[in-house]
């Protein structure tokens, strides 16, 4: 009997305490704290993979951000200003984020499979490369961003996989909540009392409206 740990929120499934091996849980079982699926758990003794050595080379493509990337950047800067109680600066960055968001073009042939592939790419290549580069130059700020960002991306990956398995039934008679601080997404009747990633209280969550 061992223990399995959620990579997203840190919840521990203790097989001895629960009286049931983790492998015997149904595929539909999810983390009782953050809602992640079984695939987001790892054995307690599993060592975290070492990030590959990486170097950042600025290319012409990296010098010009898309309007979607600019929107995300300004939104993150707004949240950073909020945490430093710089309300005026936060409001200006939110205005910029909204401006760029309105200019984002529609993605042709967008579907859930393509979204899943993009998320997998971030988890398998993007975050390891970014973390490795940040460690090389001792950039603690970027390393902290990786901690939150990777957890949020992992829960998105988990939710997308559940949607692929269950379809629209996954979202019937429930709500979708987003943490306005770190971007954690939660599916349930009400938001968590504390965000499993950044630990802010429930009032920091916003309910996603307009789902048809």
TrEMBL record:
It comes from the Bacteria. Keywords: Electron transport, Iron, Metal-binding, Transport. It holds the Pfam family Rubredoxin. Its cofactor is Fe(3+). Residues 1-44, 174-208 form the Rubredoxin-like domain. GO terms for molecular function: iron ion binding. PANTHER family: RUBREDOXIN-LIKE SUPERFAMILY PROTEIN. This is Rubredoxin.
């Amino acid at each position: 009997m061992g223990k399995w740990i959620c990579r997203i929120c840190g919840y521990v499934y203790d097989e001895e305490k629960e009286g049931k091996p983790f492998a015997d849980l149904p595929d539909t079982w999810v983390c009782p704290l953050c809602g992640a699926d079984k695939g987001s758990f790892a054995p307690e003794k599993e060592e975290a993979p070492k990030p590959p050595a990486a170097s950042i080379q600025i290319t012409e493509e990296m010098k010009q951000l898309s309007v979607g990337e600019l929107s995300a950047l300004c939104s993150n800067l707004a949240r950073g200003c909020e945490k430093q109680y710089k309300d005026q600066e936060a409001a200006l960055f939110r205005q910029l984020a909204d401006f760029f968001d309105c200019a984002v073009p529609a993605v042709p042939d967008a579907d859930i499979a393509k979204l899943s592939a993009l998320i997998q790419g971030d988890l398998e290549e993007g975050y390891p490369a970014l973390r490795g580069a940040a460690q090389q130059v001792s950039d603690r700020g970027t390393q902290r961003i990786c901690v939150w960002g990777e957890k949020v991306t992992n829960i998105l990956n988990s939710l997308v996989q559940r949607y692929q398995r269950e379809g629209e039934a996954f979202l019937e008679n429930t709500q979708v909540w987003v943490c306005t601080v770190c971007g954690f997404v939660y599916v349930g009747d009400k938001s968590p009392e504390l965000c499993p990633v950044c630990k802010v209280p429930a009032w920091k969550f916003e309910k996603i409206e307009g789902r048809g």
